[in-house]
Amino acid sequence: MASLLRSGSVSSIFSGLKRVLTTRGPRYDSLTLHSGQGQPLCPTLARLLSAQRPVENVSTTSQASQGIDRALYRIDTDIRRTGRIYLRDVEDIFSEIKTLKHASSTQSLLLLRCCGSLVPEEHPEVRNKLVQDIWNTLQELGVPLDISHYNTLLRVYLENSHKFSPTEFLAQLEKNGVEPNRVTYQRLISRYCQEGDIEGATKILEFMKEKQLPVGENIFNALITGHARANDLESAWAVLDVMHSSGLEPTTDSYAALLIAHAEAGDAEGLSRTLRECEAAELTMHDHDLLEAVYSLATHGHHVLVAQVMDKLHRQPGYAQDAMNVIYRLVNAGCHETAHQIFSTMRVPYAGEGQPQAPTAGAFFIKHLVKSGTTPMIKVVEYCQDLKEKGLNPLALEQALNSALTNGRPEEALFLMRVMKEEGCSLRPHYFWPIFLHHGKSGDAQKLYDTAKHMLSFGIPVTIETLRHYILPALAAQGLLDTNGTIGGLKEAGVPVPFTVSGIVAFLLDTQEPVEAATLLSRYRVRVRSVLRRDLADSYMKSGQTAAIVTILGQMLNHSQDSANADRDDREAQKVTDEDGENIPREEGQQDIAALFLLDVAIQCQRNKRSEKLLALLQEMEQRGIGISMEGGDAVRKRLDPSVDAAILEALDKVCSGNLTFQPLPREPQEPYSQRSARELEQRLQELQNKNLPTHVVQTALLVAYIRGKEVENAETLRKKMEAENIPLGTGVYVLLVDMYVGAGELEKALTNLEELMAREPDVKLNHYKYLRLALLMAQQGRAQDVVKLVQHHVEQESSSGEDDTVLANQARRLLEYMTEHSALQSARQVLDLLLAHKVVTPSTLLFNPFVKAHLTNDDLESALGEFESICQTHRLTPLKQELTTRCINLEDGERLQKIMDLSIQVHGELNSLYDMVFAFVECGKVHQARKLVETPGLRAFNGKLDQKCKWLRDMGKIEELANLVSVTKDIFDIDRDMMYSNLLKAYMKKNDPDKALGVWTNMQEDNYQPSDNFLIELGQFLQASGRKVPFAIPHQEAAPKSEATPKSEAIPQKEATPQPAISVSESTPLEQFRQALKKNDWTAALDLKKQVEESGGHLTITACSDLVEGLIKAGKLNEATNTVLAMVSADTHPNPRVFKFLLLTLAGTGQVEPIQALERYITDHSLKRRLNYDNLLCTAYITAGRSEEVLDDLLKTVKDVPDTKLEELAQNFPRGGILGILEKHPNHLTQVLEIAELYAARGITSPANCVWMHLFSTGQHDQANEIYQKHLKTSTSLFMFRNIMNHAEKAGDAGLLASLMKVLENHPGLSNQAKGLVYNSWIGILCNRSQFEEGQQVLDSALQTLHLSDLSTRVLTRLKEGIEEAGKKFPYTISIKESGPLRQAAASSSSSSSSDSD
């Protein structure tokens, strides 16, 4: 082998390898154990973290120790990605070790390593102090420290330039009985060389020679540094000759040491010489070495030479992280200008036209400038403004302010706020809270007052919250809270006295000092804000100071006191004008506040069984003349136990008697007419007519209510009446009339009203959604050309801010689909061109699908492909690409298939297109062709896309296709085989096929792939549950299995798991930035990054997309969430069901029907549709939108048209819960629902009749309910539902309703005892709530005549027993604890009272 390497036959290969190694450069050192084996952390630590356990206190420390292991593992991942970590992470681990009072040898070693150059943000002094603290703690804990620990300590000392004596260090080793090794001597030599002490280094070298220890390259490189710092650069160069004579070739590190040496000396010629010599040796200087030279030039004052070195930068992959690390150090050293020069070389994304901005560009630089305190603030502001002007970071000033506040720099923060104020930025009160906390720790009251003064000077009010939670606690913590002094100090700062007093009262209530608060109010007669009502109740319950509490309550109610700072809810009595023109006095409810306060106290007294406190409070209120309204008194009585002391009821009656102060009952403000129902408006109209008052306002509101309620006849009648009275209709009413007639399908009336509107106001146009609805109705009646004219007339307007882009797109899609399906292709094209030209909708595959589909429907593949090509080239979209592809595959039309592929590559890129083609071949059963595609040279794994496809095939039950896909892709480079096999395993498990599931494990062995612990655990448990023998040892599940949401790089190793190397993802990739954006709740950035990932050919996991959707919904970005899910479902995937249902619930709650309908076409899996409760939620959306009649019309049409072959699907899709909601909110629809129920029943589906029966029964209409029961339900074999009746009874506390229900159920055939038991549980529970325990026992006795005690709830029985025994009687039954295992659950789920009726 040696002779072969010396020969020239491989010289070219060897030099090529050399070039690769030098141009790429080494990445960051991970937390590596430099043992003899030289194994890096990731495999070694993976084994250590899973196997190693502390020797002592295993039971109490293992969990915490495992947490330390996880934290260290994550730190290692950060180092591999960025080359740095944060001090707080190290401190957190150190704190955990101190708390645990234990650390393993490995943990100690890794923690020490984290205190050097891996923390570039911190000054070396800070890092030195931390490592010394850690070292001392480890010694105190008795952690075994070997030579590797001492060597790591030496390395940290060197990185931090810590001054220490090598001889003393050796002496310490000898004292502790630790034998130094070669690495120890190398690092001691480096220490001498750092100081330019060649003599000291020589002594160590001689000692190494005596011990016959090898001298490696590291020592020669250190000697270069040593000679240079001894001002002997000639000798430094001579070291290279010595290396040659010793058989060592100088490396890039050697020349880097020389480069830094000349940089420290400011020798321009030496720098040039070094770079020339390095290049002549066919070595390439790495970027991080060049940056080190720049650092040396800047810190030694040679700024003019910085550009000479920076010109040589290659900016190779990883440059950004190298640059960031050196920027941190330069800023710490006060060289901010050089740091800015380096920052300017980083590839920062600019916000070009049509591209989203990058609001975080340079944030690390700005934040560290502020944190370090080495840069004048005026320069920081300049850098911030430069970033803003260049469009790199519009939030630079805000980020600088955040850094100042976070790092305890109040003066800098105030300076930045002043600049932000001048530039028109918004300031908020909470910006000042960290400053108050900072000054509070220092105990300087004057600085607190000065900060309040600064707040006011910026135009920011000192809020009650600021006083209560920040200023006053800070003063109290230092013993400086003197009320008079505080009020005076804040008054000088500009805070009004009443406001300060209110804040102090709130603070005193928080600290349970109501007496001091009352005393303060006796001196400063200010009004207490009513928002402190609950705080007052809490203070009373904890302090018991009745007199003081009632005094404060009186001040809260006292309207005679002036309070300039009272909030809008506490304004004095004022008069407002009602919409009718009548003057209505609207007074703030004094009694209501007192009643609410009393109710708060009553609830707490009831809960804590402290009724004596309530009595004392009522008596004190009576003495002070504070009364409450009768309604308030009733509310309090409802909260009291029936057995409450009569004295309390008597005292409450006196407070409610009306003979005390503050008597007038408040008149609650009336709702605006726009918020009232049609029935309420009808009543109001009648009242005004009886009084001969003007009615035009009410009639207009009533007409609008009729229109929105789709009450066409009532609307037309009222309109004629208004026209007869010459009451004009507004523009908005005409628009609503047009929309109402469109919804009713009456096109001519809609157009007539539109013409009247246009004649009155020619410039008025319908909004986009309304004219698109009208256009669809016109198209349905065969007026395609009129559709084009209508759209052309109304399209020229700006979109309303309230219009939903998704709703518009779906309405446009429905219009285009109808037109293309009914031979109006050219008109449809004109409509779409108009909508796109005026940016009503944005181009999407949904809009273009109908044009391709129209040709496919006619089997005109050539025209479909031509349409497809035109759309691809014009809009870069690929509508129905997969359907076209599969048709060509089935026709074996290679020429057209190639054309589709070429077009797809132009739009989606080669990798995306190739995988889509593979999927199409697999789905068509062409496995051989799919395998040939996969064998494309250079094809890399697209794990995200593969995972999505596997899940889709799995969910759709296409197991054969999934198995073929797993087989076809097995040889792709870097593919996640564990993911592929796991999906196949889950598919077989879902099918309950243990043989096939076990076959996956066998296939893995054939493929020489080691199954993960999670795979073996999942398979093993499935085989056990199937009663099959497990042919392998199931690993111990000591750590939570890695979920689909866990990135590979963050997976925690488990016991017996095969160590896997950590996957390093550059922080600069859009994928990693996306994950960070999710963590920071930066949804705008997350959406932009998702787009970047997908445009670059990547795909996010389903879990990541689900997290994004959930976050968007919670942030109120419903449009963006809907668009994201639409994009997912159109790509044959979907969010996880929980998030999907969350979206549908939110859309339904806001009445957004169209987005829900847009999603329906993609939900092809009926089981998923049921899990999402889709039909009920769609119905709920219609109800919320006031469009209930549309649901009923659709159900009526469906039941008439559906063929017998689809009756099962018809029954499953009936929205039971939705229909109950319609009947509850709109009982006037009962007749129509009855008609629907009869039609369904005629086809053998009784669930609609069941819903009507429940509604009638719950509302007391028992005769009508019985007719339906006898006709449709008594002999039906379908599921009999009555849960809604139980819910109604429990809500109203109506035991009689349940008694009536039991009479029906007793004779109902086939009803299980468990179902009857549920009704008895509710019945007895209601009686127990009323403390009617004897009646409850009578019901139980009756139940046990046909049921067993085990059929009833243990909880209800226990409650009944306690009530009986508290009354001094004996409970005659023995309650046994029941199991809640699978059999019990199965029995419950099979009962007829399942919740299906209340979905």
From TrEMBL:
Sequence ranges assigned to domain PROP1-like PPR in this UniProt record: 134-276
Biological process terms in GO annotation: regulation of mitochondrial translation
Phosphoprotein in keyword set: no
Renumbered residue ranges of the record's region Disordered: 561-587, 1038-1068
Intervals holding PPR repeats: 181-215, 216-250, 977-1011
Record's keyword terms, sorted: Repeat
Bias (Basic and acidic residues): 565-587
Name of this chain's protein: PROP1-like PPR domain-containing protein
MF annotations from Gene Ontology: mRNA 3'-UTR binding
Stored PANTHER family: LEUCINE-RICH PPR MOTIF-CONTAINING PROTEIN, MITOCHONDRIAL
The keyword Ligase belongs to this UniProt entry's keyword annotation: no
Gene3D superfamilies found in the cross-reference section: Tetratricopeptide repeat domain
GO (cellular component) term, any one: mitochondrion
